Records
---
Amino acid sequence: MKTRYQAGKHTLELLLILLALLFIYPIYMTIINGLKTYQEVATSTSALPGKFQFINFAVVWNQINFSGVFINSLIVTVAGVGGILLISSTAAYQLVRRPGWVSNAIFLAILSSLVIPFQTMMVPLVKVAKDFHLMDSLYGIIVMYWGFGIPLALFLYHGFIKGIPRELEEAAHIDGSGTFGVFFRILMPLLKPITTTISILHSLWIWNDFLLPLITLSSPKNKTIPLAASVYFGQYTNEWHLAMAALTMAIVPVIIFFLFMQRYIIQGITAGAVKG
């Protein structure tokens, strides 16, 4: 019986290793091809470069003004995710703690936007954005990300808050805390696991998003990294080596952010598993 268990365990470990390699392979391809010449990429995408072309990163840095587009992406991502977290968490708290048909109607109305494809909203979105002077501006696209990101975040927060005992808040009210004090001092620390999850999901989405910046941002000074890197994919020419170098530079901050936030996910799971 023990031998069977060990064999099954090793088989599962092998399958998980193969699955991990499957997910790592695209990152490997991106980095390796970013260190090649164009001829080497055209010849074989999977082979190692004959000589590492670190000059590709310097060329990309200067050609697309990487420092500028990096700051734009950082501003849009941080402000977008921050607004989504603040608005959706406070809204979910009020909707959960004030039950009734009005709260249910608001909740369902917000969730209904999740089933509407983005492609069907592109033309109306551009028209409304023009009317409110939100086109071709960082603050405008941040507001749009709030609108598109809040429904999913609200749904996740809503389910999580329902599992938190109301007695904790009542005890804080008895001690003299107001509504804001109860939310930010009592509830927000308890929401850390779901807040971390939402932060990671929405940060990856906003940082890597291409379609919304494409239809709303036109000035070179407002471009984000995916939009700026698209210059290497043309109708007649494709500079694959520079495109891969640009993508490599774009994914490094995301990987660092994910590794940094991962420990908070583990802490949240551990805290939720231990009683007392």
---
Amino acid sequence: MEYFLKLFLSGTAKGSIYALIALGYTMVYGIIQLINFAHGEIYMIGGFTALILGGFFFSNGMPVWLVLLFSVLLSIIYASAFGYTIEKIAYRPLRGKPRLSALISAIGVSIVLQNFVLLAQTEKFMPFPSYLPEFSWLQPYKEYINSTQLIILGVTAIIMVFLTLLIKFTRIGKAMRATAQDMHMAQLVGVDVNQVISVTFIIGSSLAAIGGVLICSYMGQINYYIGFVAGIKAFVAAVLGGIGSIPGAVLGSFILGWTESLGTGYISSDYEDAFAFVILIVILLIKPDGILGRTQRQKV
């Protein structure tokens, strides 16, 4: 039972990591039905930005909490600027065109960003310092869960609640829901669809940047390729829970995290990536729209 608890808590922390990225995927898809495959690279860029800025701030003698604060804030701003620019340059001109065009554009942006960071940094893994505090009261339980995992879990919960409240009770949230339901009708009633989509990309990129800082602090390393792997896993989690649904993205992420952790613990770590896709296939065979997804009927 003790071994199972360790694996379960480890899977919970891993699920929180996937959720931070999957939320951005599901928000963009919910608005414009686009799989933004460059989202994982935004997460990677957020992590590199925090690494570079953190080193600069540390060298100037800033205290750790200020380094963390400024690194996260500036990473969010930088990643949001990337997300906004990508939407405006790579996706907006293709709006109204066949979906395959936007999908190919997303894959192209992902490759471009990977190579941009590869040329600007290095192909090797770089050490990433832990900016997160250690909780002394958690020391007796550190073999089950550490401070970084707890912080990631707490941040994920806060973000999920914030996004839910934002979409349900704010003006921009109402505009997002209108755009997601019928983009053309939303334009007719005065919704600035371009602004809504840009805001959605900015919010999604901000979440990716936060995830990049937290996850790289947890892993202790970073390189140019981490965004691709994490992005694919987060995409699987979003589809698993029901892409377009915020609670579904979080639920799918936790299921994926638990499956990988328990599978590697009881079967073999060699099949860690395979477990994700096996459970995805099973869920989609049973419920093609995902666990919390809704069947969308299209008028012909």
---
Amino acid sequence: AELGEVYRTLWQYGLTLPAGTIANVGLTGLTLGGGIGLLTRAAGLTCDSLVQLKMIVADEKEGADLITVSCSNHPDLFWASQGGGGGNFGIVTSMTFKAVPISQVSIFSITWGWDDFEEVFNTWQHWAPYTDDRLTSSIEFCPKEVNRIEALGQFVGPKTELKKLLKPLLKAGSPTSGMVKTMPFIEAVTFFNSPGGNQPQKMKRSGSFIEKPLSERAISTIKHFLEHAPNQNASVWQQALGGAAGRIAPDQTAFYYRDAIIAQEYLTNWTSPGEKRQNVRWIEGLRTSLSRETMGDYVNWPDIEIRNWPRTYYGENVERLRRVKTKYDPENVFRFEQSIPPLRRSLFF
């Protein structure tokens, strides 16, 4: 079930799910890792709307068993399925969600040039996570040679209200373009979609979470890396969190980073195999340089270079996830390079 199809089907009933923006991303994997999107602050993570799932788990006697998982049936596995990552415990065959009513939304786009980097960065990070919960926004900082910063967002309300909320952002620097529109939600889905965004390519990504606004030092670090980016496709992308997603305790679901105000992603892609090393080093250098002021990484942005990946993805929830793994998959049937191991297995196998 890809997001585009899910959105179109639910739209026929005036409903949606708080999910991602790329149409060909699978709903199941998105949910199991948490699920961040442009309804996150208004309606929570995708996994927060999950009511029930069916999962094939390993069974010593039968070989496999199809079980129904919910808050009252296998509640520990249900907890783990809300942000504990895809593929760790079994094969999900169906999911049941509590859908969200939706009709019209208002969207915005504002762009700036490179000269406004510090002012825009600082203004957005002090505004986006703290504004009206009905407004979720993201911002992308491109390399210096691209000369483009773009903030986007979706507001569950009329554009007259959105324009008022945007005033602090519009006062930052000298915007080169701006747009505010009200439209049916399904049209906003098309606007925010990245065509081919989930296609195989030579790329590297990593990420982190931010719990308080970054310092001038950290902003200067990001600016420096983007001044020396490996190519024009590199970027630093941020999305505001908080709101509905932040009203759930870090241990209430397996998604640990509930106290974060921003999810931050580092991205680059290239064409020639010989460019790989340079691009990977750029991402890892950026991530390491910001580590004093950031924490963790989103499991749906997996990074094979992260050494202590269990704690990086799952924080303080990692040991509880290992207990769930031990209970439902003690022989470690469902495993891959960064899968959660049972307690009797080495954490780094």
